[in-house]
Structures are given as C-alpha cells and as structure tokens.
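Attaching the record inline, Q. Sequence:
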Amino acid sequence: MIQIKEFFDKNTWTLTYVVWDENTKDAIVIDPVMDYDSAASKISDVSAQAVIEFVRAHELRLHFILETHAHADHLSGSQIIKRAFPEAQIAIGEKITKVQEIFKGVFGLPEEFKTDGSQFDRLIKDGEEFLAGSIKIKTFFTPGHTPACASYYIDGNVFVGDALFMPDYGTGRCDFPAGSATDLYRSVHGRIYELPEDTKVYTGHDYLPNGRALKFMSTIAEEKKENIQLKGTTALEDFVKLRNERDRTLAAPKLLLPSVQVNIDAGNLPPADQNGKRYLRIPIS
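Structure, as predicted:
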C-alpha cells in the first residue's frame, strides 16, 4: 500500500514528498530542499535532514530522488539526500538538457559545464514507466512552467511540481526562459486532466493564499471544476491571456539566480575556488 508524507518548507513555500510502499519499505523522495540564507549566502541541511530522519526512522529503502524540474525558487537538496543514501539515484526528465543549454549562457558557466544531463544519475523519457522496487512510476512531461517539467503518476496519485497548484491559487507561472502558457495549457488539459477524476494531485508549492492553512492535495475533479485559472472548461486563449497578464505583474523569485545554477547541476554547489570557498554567479542586467 502506497503511503505519502509531505514536508513543507515555509521559507520557499515548497512541498517535498516521501512516497513509500508500506509492505516492502521501497521509497522515493520528490523535490527535496537545501536551505539557503540569501542575505548571508549560507546553506544548511535542516529541511533535508528532516527527510533523511524520516526515511531512517521508518526503515525505508530509498531508490530514487526525483526532481519535477529545475526549480527557480529553492535550491535542491538532492545531493544531501544522496550522501545519506548513496544507492539512491537522482533522476529528472531528459529535457533538462534544454534548460542547461539556456542557463549555461545566462550565467556564463565555464566551457566544461556539460549540457547533456550527465550530472544526474538518470534522465527519464516522456511516457517512461520504471520501478522503485515495488513502486511503479509513470512519467509524463508537462512543460509550460519550464520546458523540462515532468509529472510522476504513482498508484492513483500524481505529483505535478509547479504545473498546478491548489484550486484557489491556479497554476505555475510561465515567464521563465522557454516557458509557455500555451504549453502549460496543453500539459494540463491534454495530460493531467485526462487522468481519472479521483486521481489525487500533489503540488510542488502552497502559498497559503488569504492566510488559510496549508493545503497540498486535491483531485483531478476538483481542479477541473474549481481551479481559478484553469478549469476543465477554460479555453486556451482565455488562459494564455490571463496567465501572461498575471506573469507581467510578478517579481522574480528571490532565489532565482542561486537556485537555477545549482539545480541544473543536479543540486551540486559550484566547485571550490583556489581559496577553498564556493562562489555563485550573479549576472547584472
């Protein structure tokens, strides 16, 4: 029987999930967080350690650390998790190579930075089904928020990253490089909303709109009926207009620049300089 435990990072509004089979103890982690204090440029592993402690306390066998995309609002804790569980593979959709190509130029990364996705242990194809022990995972690409977003379907549950949020908040933004409101509409209407209506939808973030309590799970039926930006009846043109207008009012995520350059490198920090310190690149525009 599949079990799911959420971990909420209030600093970045991010949901991390541990998914496991209660009978076999096989498990995966989805979208872990590395804590980062941007003012002090200081990292810590508090969020990741909470996940590690949970996995150990329940004696789970961790097979994969799955990323739904290269996040722009938090640094990935995947390498912290992997150090604790070296046999676990860090995996992401194979379109990550497109994001690497874009941001290698944005950050002026050195020539040796690879854009073939080889920093990750596994690149997953669209429609690919694979096993984490006894857990069957089906991947389907859901671009729009970024060109490389993927959703993971597991036994009546779908983990959608930033494609969809709770019905009272809407969808992910689409104004990052190579993002597309048209693509997101097609991903949601043509893929996510095609799942059975009782499928449980787990989101990558919750922003607690209007001060309500944390929510992170809805159903396909609820999203199609109630999502304030993208219902089952919403027309493509209406969504694209609404999403693009909304995106023009949004400030850049506060951790955009440090997050992306770490996350396209599978959660690895930049190599140490000659003085032993690591430095992030911050382009000035």
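The chain has seven helices and 15 strands. The chain has one domain: 2-263.

More tomorrow.
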